[in-house]
Write a structure and sequence with these properties.
The complex is a heterodimer of chains A (about 170) and B (about 70). Chain A has about 170 residues and is α+β, with helices and mostly antiparallel strands. Chain A starts with a helix and ends with a strand. The longest helix of chain B has 15 residues. The two termini of chain B are about 20 Å apart. Classes of the chains: A alpha+beta (about 170), B alpha+beta (about 70). At the A-B interface, strand 4, strand 5 and strand 6 of A face strand 1, strand 2, strand 3, strand 4 and strand 5 of B. Strand 6 of chain A pairs antiparallel with strand 1 of chain B, so a sheet runs across the interface.
Chain lengths: ~170, ~70
Amino acid sequence: MANNKDLDLFVNLVNKVQKENEEKFIRIGETEIPIERFTREDFCEEEQEELFGFPEYYVANSQEMVTRKSEGLMVSDASKVPINFGLTTKDKLKIVGGVVLATIVGIGILKFSSIRDEKTFSGDGYDQYTKYIDYARENGLAVSEEGFNEFMGYDYDSNTISIEGNTKGGR
Amino acid sequence: MEDIIILDGMEFLILDKINLSGINFLYVIATDGSNKFTLLNEYEENGKIMVKSVTDKEIIEEVFRKMNERNR
């Protein structure tokens, strides 16, 4: 592998690569050095592209096809070199922890909502309102706040409903 | 889907696959950070699925052209 000094020299010479009879060479003074004497690693990426062509076409000889599923390997673009994006154990734990936390919060929100609903719609007030609705429907009465207030004036002790002077049995 | 193929002991990522005239072609790129890539021709031999790199420039160009057309 060429040393740094040589590489500096080669960088300056990249644009001076000669091409004659389909052969590439670098001329240093009177000396012509065939490109084949150098390897890709002797040059930086830009020079490699200039001198050897980019990217490098690999020729695989005939062989049995052996494949496997990748794990955490992603390619952002087909024209780019793949990027190793494997998740570390720490990353995985963070993700799992986040999911668990989100689930706990979600469940908490649901429970809170149902508890709030139960407080709003359960208990004596809710039962009485539904009873009023049923009563109004059965008697062909329009549901109204006044009607509900009247309905609420039933006798708790006897559990009877007194509306318009009429006493009806409670439900 | 199996998306890594082993060639000569090296792992290549299968980026694209296309069937032209009944022949499967695989566009693969090395996963070791080098700039190696190749176009493989898949075929069957003695009951085994084999692959080898396409070396005919015209075929290579045609296959990539078809891949680009399909992916457009």
